[in-house]
Design a protein that fits this description.
Largest sheet: 6 strands, mixed
Strand content: 15-25%
Structural class: alpha/beta
Order of helices and strands: HEEEHEEHHEHEEHHEHEHHH
Number of strands: 10
Distance between the termini: 38 Å
Shape: globular
């Protein structure tokens, strides 16, 4: 049911053992940010988390880029009623996207950075993260006159530490896949064409233990993210919206 509901934004493939691959896309290619796909992300994560047949989530983008642009028509809704959508699209949906990834999934998550892009927190805040060779991580908020406080700040500060996060957020530094591996942002760097296969190999290992063990282990490894989100997400988002 929900693979059909979300088909304009996500492609779904679930194995018989419950390992679910979700590939975000825009018209079959790399993600282009818009009001509607931004909203769909949190809804999808909550829906996946509510389905007891899902046992592991593998989340990635499509094509050579992760997210390098915006849909040129994708913000017409916001422009038509800025007061309404500034809350609905930005403050509410934006917070749900990050918090749903951390709080609404009781299953292990594997994030795959398939190429360069922004808003990479959605894959970097998964329990395990892999990057394709040639991928780069950067935040563009500051350089377009926006405060970087909609989840990317949580991600960078938790993974990079205070000084490196400040540098990345203030300068828009492009972090290579190799640097991301060295700095602890990702667990592995693999060729792009082997990214999904490697994720399935890791999923196979995770699936060797009983369902309850998998799910309770997830609660342990995700605890730092839950604390970071509870402490910093809502207030940071409020500052950005100001």
């Amino acid at each position: 049911e929900y693979s059909e509901r979300f088909k304009d934004f996500f492609k779904f493939a679930r194995r018989d053992d419950g390992v679910l691959l979700v590939e975000a896309h825009t018209v079959g290619g790399p993600i282009q940010l818009s009001v509607e796909n931004h909203r769909a992300l949190g809804q999808m994560l909550k829906t996946v988390g509510a389905d007891p047949e899902n046992e592991i989530l593998i989340l990635t983008g499509s094509g050579d880029d992760f997210m390098m642009g915006s849909d040129p028509e994708g913000f017409a809704l916001e422009e038509a009623d800025m007061e309404y959508w500034a809350y609905e699209y930005a403050y509410k949906d934006g917070r749900i996207n990050v918090s749903a990834l951390v709080n609404d999934l009781e299953i292990p998550t594997i994030g795959l950075l398939n190429g360069p892009g922004f808003h990479t927190e959605i894959v970097l805040m998964c329990d395990i993260s892999l990057a394709a060779e040639g991928a780069t991580i950067f935040d563009l908020h500051y350089d377009i006159g926006s405060v970087p406080a909609d989840g990317i700040h949580n991600c960078f500060q938790e993974l990079l530490g205070v000084k490196r996060a400040a540098y990345a957020l203030l300068t828009g530094e492009a972090i290579t896949a190799e640097q991301a591996l060295e700095w602890g942002m990702v667990n592995e760097v693999v060729p792009r064409d082997q990214l999904i296969a490697r994720a399935y190999t890791i999923a196979d290992h995770i699936m060797t233990q009983p369902r309850t063990v998998r799910r309770l282990t997830t609660q342990i490894v995700r605890r730092p993210w839950k604390q970071r989100i509870a402490n910093d997400l809502d207030g940071g988002f409020g500052i950005q919206m100001f």
